Amino acid sequence: MVKNLLDRVGTITLMGPGPSCVTDEVYRAMSLPTLGHMDSEFIKIMDGIKEMLQKVMATQNRLTVPISGTGSAGMETCFVNLIEPHDTVLILKNGVFGNRMFDVATRLGAEVDAVDAPWGKPIDPEMVKKQLEKKKYKIVAIVHAETSTGVRNPIQEVAKLVHQTDALYLVDAVTSLGGIPVPTDELGIDALYSGTQKCLSCPPGLSPVSFSEKAVKAITNRKTKVPNWYLDMNMIIQYWNGAKRVYHHTAPINMLYGLYQSLYLILEEGLDAVYARHMKYHNMLAQELEGIGLAMLVAPEFRLPMLNAVIVPEGVDEAKVRNDLRNTYNIEIGAGLGDLAGKIFRIGLMGHTAREENVVKVVSALKELI
Q1: DSSP reduced 3-state for 65
Q2: CA distance 131 to 115
């Protein structure tokens, strides 16, 4: 007889780089009976999701929808719809996810350049300015919240530079959306993508995206077909917009229930209150960690409140600490990636995880283990 492995799933406090803790309300929403993906009641739910996403993303963009897939699907959606072979693309990268954007753009046949910054440091706008003076680009792309390092990149300053050119401004908001302000329209962001499993506190499986009218025009005026059928916004929008919907793919119904509920809870709490809560418990965590002798990797002015990169003290086995946290204290934190592998812990305070009891729990455990 096959053993049900789900019986082994326990209550783990998710304090890594994602997924984050999920509220009971979202779990209850996801357990509701499944509707058909063309059902009139489900289409009302779809419209509600679009409206709430526009509020959380601070945008009036008509083309604001969740893509069926995780945050990486959102990244692919933005790039495959906007890039044609030999387009010039500038990627601003200082971590794993900037590197991924560079890889995806290269695979699509773009001519890709990069402005790099050391891991743990923000992108330097002056270097961006110099590069934009050298060459004309169709797209300039940046990661708002670099999950691999805990760095908040200066998307406001970069926006001013990009808007002095004709380039489209593309922003990765996978970790930032719902944790810090993402002023899409105010900054003139043309393409934005995120994920449900970070500060939105919904399980992984959907990727909200938003495209400006300038970006939509670039998509509709393509000389070549979008090279990915599943992520072609020309077709997806026909399912997500208008009185009469055109079938494209079977939407993940219950995942969308969860997203609806998570967005509802964020707006019910209030965006300003949500941002203040993330910052409050980030400050508390940083202070408490300092009190037990642990230092943060990133300078205070560039730190993310929702993803905290903590330097592993010399002589400490970081893998053993993480394993002991998981197995003894039922707490999950993340390891360093790439250049920072073995050098940092990544402690997440994302969405529902950003609560005082979680800060106390992880600091108390680390005090015992280090």
Answers
A1: strand
A2: 8
Q: Which token pair is 317? A: 């086995």
**Per the structure block, which two tokens stand in for 30?**
């996801």
Instruction: Measure the CA–CA gap between 370 and 360, rounded to whole angstroms.
Output: 16
Token pair of 75, please? Answer: 């990244």
Distance CA 302, CA 346 (A): 15
pLDDT band for position 369 (cuts 50, 70, 90): very high
CB 196 within 8 A of CB 56: no
What pLDDT shows up at residue 1? 64
- The pLDDT tens digits of the residues spanning 287-297 come to 999 999 999 99
Q: Global pTM?
A: 0.97
List, in sequence order, every beta strand (DSSP E) within 17-167.
63-68, 88-93, 111-116, 139-143, 145-146, 151-152
AA identity, residue 367 = K
- Residue 152 to residues 47, 99, 199, 251, Cα–Cα distance (Å): 31, 16, 15, 33
Proportion of the chain in helix, strand, coil states, percent, rounded to 5: 45, 15, 40
Type of residue numbered 350: M
3-state class (DSSP) for residue 71 = helix
Per residue in 35-84, pLDDT (tens digit) is 999 999 999 999 999 999 999 999 999 999 999 999 999 999 999 999 99
**Residues 186-237 pLDDT 10s:** 999 999 999 999 999 999 999 999 999 999 999 999 999 999 999 999 999 9
User: For helices 253-269 and 271-291, what crossing angle results, to 10°?
Assistant: 80
Tell me how far CA of residue 142 lies from CA of 78, 89, 99, 122, 189, in angstroms. 12, 11, 10, 11, 11
Instruction: Please provide the size of the chain in residues.
Output: 370
